[in-house]
Amino acid sequence: MTSLIDSFWETIPPIWRQTRSQIRMIAAERFGLTVEQFQALRRIRKGYDSVSALAEEGRLSRSQASRAVDVLAQKKLVTRLTDTNDRRRVHLSLTAKGEQTLSAIYAEAEAWLDERFQRLTPGQAQEISQALALLRAAFLP
Amino acid sequence: MTSLIDSFWETIPPIWRQTRSQIRMIAAERFGLTVEQFQALRRIRKGYDSVSALAEEGRLSRSQASRAVDVLAQKKLVTRLTDTNDRRRVHLSLTAKGEQTLSAIYAEAEAWLDERFQRLTPGQAQEISQALALLRAAFLP
DNA sequence: CTCAGATAGTTATAAAATGCAACTGTTTCA
DNA sequence: TGAAACAGTTGCATTTTATAACTATCTGAG
Q: Could you say which DSSP state residue B28 is in?
């Protein structure tokens, strides 16, 4: 009998690696972004709207985050807006182009995922979906 | 109704990130290895026994792989053995210390995983295990 | 008030990692 | 034979990264 731990090791790392590599390809080849830039966009959309928040969430130094935002701003994907109440703070947000780019990358990644999931019956998809909910409960307390 | 794709996005990246970060902590703080070195050890044990094989599998340049092996050899975790038939080739293998280190890291990582899985009933664990098998089938054809 | 200390973000610079190309030693095969 | 191919290593220029200093701003105890 295979333990859950073994299943976990055999499954999660390889499928995530495959997915991540796919995202990397899409982001790089079709949109000219590194994965790091893609991650930064994701996080900004998710609500991490300052350089510090970005740094902390992404486990990078503030100087690194500052420069990353710089590149994204140059690419017109992100805007910096100084807070009027606390003029030290800079609020980050996606431009329309940033939103579009992020959505397009997600759409392509999801099309790729969908291809894989086509191989499953609806019942199997349902089973997996439920199992993933259990997994989340175990990991994200 | 939540689609499988949504479940996937909500589950796989965060739990893998958490797990990976845990491995990073264990490898770094308790064994003085970077994740990259840990990955290299894993791959060598898995059978990628030359610098080129290591480079290709790990998606790094050969010079990078060569230098990584150098560090591992200095740490006495890996041995290089020149092939007697083709003296260009260098066969890589783990030393006893390398095996022990790798096993110890795995053991700690699995203890950590086990803690998370304690939150599940045996039935739930079984369900997840089956669902992961389906997922593998969809991704790794 | 006010000024010492804290905070957000940026920039300078020194150290480390990376990729490319050159190089060594070895094998292959025309 | 010897030219080309190959495995691996090393040198070097470029890029990335981390640390710390720096600017600008805010806060709050006295």
A: I
CA angle, B37 then B41 then B45, to 5°? 170
DSSP string over chain A: ---HHHHHHHHHHHHHHHHHHHHHHIIIIIH---HHHHHHHHHHHHT--SHHHHHHHHT--HHHHHHHHHHHHHTTSEEEEE-SSSTT-EEEEE-HHHHHHHHHHHHHHHHHHHHHHTTS-HHHHHHHHHHHHHHHHHH--
- Beta-bridged to residue A80, according to DSSP, are A92
User: Which pLDDT tens digit goes with each residue over B80-104?
Assistant: 999 999 999 999 999 999 999 999 9
Nucleotides of C under 7 A from a protein CB: 7-12, 18-21, 25-28
Give the pLDDT means over successive 10-residue stretches in chain A (141 positions).
Answer: 85 91 87 88 94 90 94 94 94 96 93 94 95 94 73
Q: Do A128 and B116 touch (CB under 8 A)?
A: no
Mutation site, A132, A134, A136, A140, interface B, largest B CB count within 10 A: A132
pLDDT digits (tens, 9 = 90+) for B107-135: 999 999 999 999 999 999 999 999 999 99
Q: Residue holding tokens 């902590």?
A: B25
Query: Which residue is listed with tokens 């935002």?
Result: A69
According to the model, what pLDDT value does residue B1 have? Answer: 53
